[in-house]
Amino acid sequence: MFPLYDTIPSLRKPVVNYMIITVNVLVFLYELALFWNEELLQEFFYTFGFVPERMFYAFPVLQIFTHMFVHGGWSHIIGNMWFLKIFGDNVEDAMGHFKFFVFYITGGIFALFFHVVFNPFSPYPMVGASGAISAVMGAYFVLFYYSRIVSLVFFILPFIVEIPAVVYLFVWFLLQVLNGVFADVTGAGVAYWAHAGGFIYGVLVGMRIRRKRYWY
C-alpha cells in the first residue's frame, strides 16, 4: 500500500516540514558527491550515523541529531521524504511551527534509543529520518484518525483505493513490530524498532494534544 496523498488539506503553509525536507535533500546531494569513493561514503555514514556499540566507550552526542539527516540511497531518501510530505503538513498544522520542529527532533531521538534498546551492540550506523517521520505518523494516527489515505495497491494489477487513516497506520505499525521481531537481529538493514518507537512517541504526544483540545 503506497500512499499517494491524504484527504485533509493543510490550513497553513508547512514551512518547517518544507525546511526539514530541504535539509535532508541537501545532505543527500552532498552524499552523491561521495558516491564515486566508497571509502569516503562509508566514513561519512560512520561519522554522522549513530553506531550503538560506540556508546560503551565514547557516547556519540552529535550523531544523536545528525543521523536523522543522512540517507543510504535514492529509495531511502525518496520514500522518507514522500511520507513526511503526506503526513507532516497536518501535524504541523495541529502543533504550530516551532512545536512541530521540537516534536520532530525529539521523536527522532526517541526512535533512535528505541532502536538501541533492541540493538545495543550493533556495529552498524543507524541513518535516516524514518524514526522521526514515524513519530509524525503516530501523531497523525491520533489527531487525524478520520482522514483517508489514497493509496496505490498492487494485487495482480495496480489500483487506487481510499483507506481510513486509522487502518492504514495501524497496519503499518503492526508490520514494523512484526518485522522487528523476525528481522535480522544484528541491527543491520531496516531499523524497524526505530519505526515502532517513533510511532509510539508520536501517539503519546498526539494524545496529549487531543486532551488539551478537549479541556479548552
From TrEMBL:
Q: Provide the species name.
A: Fervidobacterium changbaicum
This protein is called what? Rhomboid family intramembrane serine protease
Q: What is its main location?
A: membrane
How does the entry describe its membrane topology?
A: Multi-pass membrane protein
The Peptidase S54 rhomboid domain covers which part of the protein? 61-210
Q: Can you supply a Gene Ontology BP term from the record?
A: proteolysis
A single Gene Ontology MF term assigned here is: peptidase activity
Question: Which family is this sequence assigned to?
Answer: Belongs to the peptidase S54 family.
